[in-house]
Amino acid sequence: MREMRRSRQLLGEAETLEILDRGSHGVLALIGDGGYPYALPISYAREGDRLYMHCAKAGHKLDALRAEPRASFCVVARDEVVPEEFTTRYRSAIAFGRIHELAGEEDILRALRLLCAKYCPGIGAEAVEAAIARERAGVNVLEFKIERLSGKQARELIEKGG
């Protein structure tokens, strides 16, 4: 994979992981029908070098990843348009890796609990387990194994210290 051309804008691993951990959603990019890129916003949770997502049991996303598991995932943490400077102040993370459907029920339940912990932190365990039991039959869980991760920030943020 290519190295970032503007290496001065490269974020460290800790800052890049923080972008992933704080993001509410990202854009998953796959190879879709006819070889066209297929990119979609999706919620996710991270554990170590894995991202977990849930989806329906059928559809374009599943067809695409079954045909070609290589994927990328982008999260934008900051996006501030500064018209008077003709620029955008941004911070982002991009992960490259392979994505597949989880098969083992324990792995699926662990990933669903991880997603609930991220998006429903104030909900008690009993309510989470009830929701998972209620929705489980119609839900598929995906695991994205991060092979390469890079973070980048606008040069204006470097110059202004933040």
TrEMBL record:
<dbReference type="InterPro" id="IPR012349">
    <property type="entry name" value="Split_barrel_FMN-bd"/>
</dbReference>
<dbReference type="InterPro" id="IPR024747">
    <property type="entry name" value="Pyridox_Oxase-rel"/>
</dbReference>
<dbReference type="Pfam" id="PF12900">
    <property type="entry name" value="Pyridox_ox_2"/>
</dbReference>
<protein>
    <submittedName>
        <fullName>Pyridoxamine 5'-phosphate oxidase family protein</fullName>
    </submittedName>
</protein>
